[in-house]
Design brief:
The model has no long low-confidence stretch (mean pLDDT 97). A six-stranded parallel sheet has the order 3-2-1-4-5-6. Helix 1 packs across helix 4. The longest helix is centred in the middle third of the chain and has 19 residues. It has 211 residues and is of the alpha/beta class. Strand 2, helix 6 and strand 3 form a beta-alpha-beta unit. The structure holds 6-O-phosphono-beta-D-glucopyranose and magnesium ion.
Length: 211
C-alpha cells in the first residue's frame, strides 16, 4: 500500500449527532417522522440524497426542486452552527497518533468525504496538516456508493487506486472503495460488512494491518 484514504464522518470525527439534530428540526417542521435508525441511512450519502430519504415519509404535496434546495440549505445552516462548536478535542489521541505513525511509514494520506463541509470540519479540529490531499463533496458529481470521491483522492495523491486502502464506517463507502478497485478497511458498522477486506476493531489497528 502507498496511500490511505479516510472517510471523515464516523472515522476521523463524529458529526452524526449534528446531522441528526439538524435533520430532526427540519423533519419536525415538515411533520415527518425521523429517528436515529433513519439517520443511519444518511451516512455517506449527499445532502440532497439525504433529504430525499427523509422525504420518503412526507405526506404533503410533491415539492419542487427549488423548495428542496431551500430545505437542504436550511439544514446546512443549522448543521454548520453545530460544527462551529467543534475543537481539537473532537479528534482522539488514538487517531492523531495513528495518522502520525502512518505518515512516518511513508504512506500518503488523503480524505475522501461526501461532505461539502469537510474543509471546515478539518480546520475546526486541526486535522489539515496530517493530510496530503482532500477530496470532498465539492469536487464530485456522484456521492458514495459511486467510487468518484475515492478515485479523485487517489488522483490527488498521484497514486493508482490499487495502491490505496480506504477506511470507512459505512457500507456505501465500502461499496464505493471496491467499485474503485481499492482495498476496503471497515470500522464500526462497516467492520461486519461482507465486502470489507480489512476488519478494524479500533482505529489504531491500521498501524499493524497496513504495510
Ligand atoms: C457525509 C455524511 O460525510 O456527508 C452524510 O456521512 C452527509 O451523512 C454527507 O449527508 C454530506 O454532507 P454535507 O456536509 O455536504 O451536507
Ligand atoms: Mg462515514
Amino acid at each position: 500500500m502507498k496511500g490511505v484514504i479516510f472517510d471523515l464522518d464516523g472515522v476521523l470525527v463524529f458529526t452524526d449527532k449534528y446531522h441528526y439534530k439538524a435533520w430532526k428540526s427540519i423533519a419536525d417542521e415538515l411533520g415527518i417522522y425521523f429517528d436515529e435508525e433513519i439517520n443511519k441511512r444518511l451516512r455517506g450519502v449527499s445532502r440532497m440524497d439525504s433529504l430525499n430519504i427523509i422525504l420518503e415519509r412526507y405526506e404533503g404535496r410533491p415539492l419542487a426542486q427549488a423548495e428542496k434546495d431551500e430545505i437542504a440549505e436550511k439544514k446546512n445552516s443549522i448543521y454548520r452552527e453545530y460544527l462551529k462548536t467543534m475543537t481539537a478535542d473532537d479528534v482522539t489521541m488514538e487517531v492523531r497518533e495513528t495518522l502520525t505513525d502512518l505518515k512516518k511509514k511513508g504512506l500518503k494520506l488523503a480524505l475522501g468525504s461526501s461532505s461539502k463541509n469537510a474543509k471546515m470540519i478539518l480546520s475546526q479540529v486541526g486535522l489539515e496538516a496530517y493530510l496530503d490531499a482532500v477530496s470532498d463533496g465539492t469536487n464530485i458529481t456522484k456521492s458514495k456508493p459511486s467510487p468518484e470521491v475515492f478515485l479523485k483522492a487517489a488522483e490527488f495523491l498521484g497514486l493508482s487506486p490499487e495502491d490505496c486502502v480506504v477506511v470507512e464506517d459505512a457500507e456505501a463507502g465500502i461499496d464505493a472503495a471496491k467499485a474503485g478497485g481499492m482495498t476496503a478497511a471497515g470500522i464500526g458498522d462497516a467492520a461486519g460488512y461482507q465486502k470489507t477486506d480489512i476488519v478494524l476493531k479500533r482505529f489504531s489497528d491500521l498501524k499493524e494491518k497496513i504495510a
